[in-house]
């Protein structure tokens, strides 16, 4: 077995172990696609509570998407001020809505169901303020497309395990993980959710709870005593 297939095998084994530990989930969307699209623009470097407050305040102040698009920029910026960088996000939101309404006649992205995964990724990432993480979250959760959102938790845990190299970016990790896993939205959804939960609850940034971890026997970071070379995003094991 070569190194590449070793890593693919390890990825599948880690996935199966976390499936047993957390239980297999059905795919669920978090909000309607338009809410999710605009909400994820608001969410960049913002706590969930502040994102929710910004979104709610924006919709109360401007109840239709056309009203958000046409709002005076200063008023929209003020409405989303609980999000970080509101002066950057407000024009992004208006540009996204303007393009969408001009192109489709309505603020609705349900047409992405009919797009191939590649075309949907391209369309979304061409929008201002929408990067691969936003696009993959939207496409996996709301459209059940076979993509892999790599957030900070998925990135950190896969790096500590040794599945992803220490200098591999989240965007590159997306392609690597997809090459190791089947192109099946339910598999990818469960992989994402489980690694996300594991990073939040067990393999935390500062003090990973290795003694409680079901991945311990296959973890490069643990096996090295916490000395495995890691990127700055992966943190250190204490004690
Ligand atoms: Fe993270 Fe420790 Fe588990 Fe490795 S053994 S995945 S470092 S919690």
From TrEMBL:
Does the keyword section mention Cell membrane?
A: no
- UniProt-recorded Gene Ontology molecular function terms: 4 iron, 4 sulfur cluster binding; catalytic activity, acting on DNA; endonuclease activity; hydrolase activity; metal ion binding
Pfam family of the protein (one): HhH-GPD
Task: List, separated by semicolons, the cofactors it needs.
Answer: [4Fe-4S] cluster
SMART domains membership:
ENDO3c (SM00478), FES (SM00525)
**Among its keywords, does the record have Iron?**
yes
- According to UniProt, the name of this protein is Endonuclease III
Which species expresses this protein natively? Persicitalea jodogahamensis
């Amino acid at each position: 077995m070569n190194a590449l297939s070793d890593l693919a095998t390890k990825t599948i084994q880690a996935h199966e172990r976390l499936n047993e530990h957390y239980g297999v989930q059905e795919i669920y969307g978090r909000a309607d696609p338009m809410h999710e699209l605009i909400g994820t623009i608001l969410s960049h470097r913002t706590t969930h509570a502040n994102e929710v407050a910004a979104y709610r305040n924006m919709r109360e102040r401007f109840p239709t998407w056309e009203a958000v698009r046409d709002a005076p920029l200063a008023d929209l910026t003020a409405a989303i001020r609980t999000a970080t960088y509101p002066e950057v996000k407000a024009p992004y939101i208006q540009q996204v809505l303007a393009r969408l309404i001009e192109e489709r006649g309505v603020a609705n992205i349900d047409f992405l169901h009919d797009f191939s995964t590649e075309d949907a990724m391209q369309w979304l990432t061409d929008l201002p303020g929408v990067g691969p993480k936003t696009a993959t979250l939207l496409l996996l959760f709301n459209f059940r497309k076979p993509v892999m959102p790599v957030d900070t938790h998925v990135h950190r845990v896969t790096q500590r395990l040794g599945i992803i190299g220490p200098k591999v970016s989240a965007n590159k990790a997306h392609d690597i993980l997809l090459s190791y896993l089947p192109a099946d939205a339910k598999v990818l959804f469960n992989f994402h959710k489980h690694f996300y939960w594991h990073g939040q609850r067990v393999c935390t940034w500062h003090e990973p709870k290795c003694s409680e971890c079901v991945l311990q026997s296959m973890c490069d970071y643990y096996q090295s005593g916490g000395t495995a070379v890691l990127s700055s995003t992966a943190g250190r094991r204490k004690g």
